[in-house]
Amino acid sequence: MESLLSLSFDNIASRDSNKIRKGLRQIEGLLAQICLSKAGSRSPHKRKSSALDDKKQGSAKQLGELKQDPAFREFFRLQEGFQWNVASRLVQTIECLLGMGNPSETDLLILSALDLLQGILMLHPPSKCLFNRESHMNLLLDLLDSMNPPRVQSQALLVLVAALIDQPRNTRTFESIDGLLTVTSLFKSRSTTKDVKMRSLEFLYFYLMPESPIVPFSHTSAPNTAVIQRGVERSFTALAGHARTHSGDAMEIDEELQDMDVRSTEDKQMLLGQYLSNVEELVQDLQESGPFAVPVQ
């Protein structure tokens, strides 16, 4: 697994678009083999079949089931160190692509990198700590610029959600660098496409959710992405601790499941109200329809 990661990292660090594309596909193939394989079916060091073959042989596994897979446990362990952390390499690749020019070619690569980054943040929640940094959070906000194509804007919003789920510190960073102004400006702009406006509105609903203690998804009657992610993060806490004890260059990751600097929907309503006039209607809709199946406090 290390050799494949090393090869893919070398490729995505290149300024040759063909090599970057190859590296992104290598990472995608590795993740597909892990996510589509059956627990204990093969050693993580003996996965030679292609992602396409795996897809034909089995179906995708649920996030909660992955922690039983030896290959996933090995992958998770490797992600705890800087040397093999995929999320940090993808962030660097996106930064490089933004400075390369030739949008017709780089936009597709940025889209692929964002798609992989979203998946990595779901598979390895501790990697979200990267977005404590203003520079990395600013990168996502830069992708919301009107100069970028709608597909990139939409995917950047999805990555932003993944980076903020159960991460109050990241949310405070997002707020401190005018993230709310960026998203609301995108939402209100006449040049923004209908699909991106809808994605922006979904993000605002998500943002207004109260930052509350983690609720295990097994106790909910209507599982959803946010709640499932919370349950998975809790179940992976012990796994992350074990991985860090076996990783010599462990990343500085906060293991606390709760952050003291949390905000309620009312707090967020006041902040968002500085940039949007109908926030009260959004909150009311959130309370009545419960789109995320989590009670608003």
Automatic annotation (TrEMBL):
Residues 41-63 are annotated as: Disordered. Pfam families: CDC14. This is Cell division control protein 14. It comes from Cercospora kikuchii.
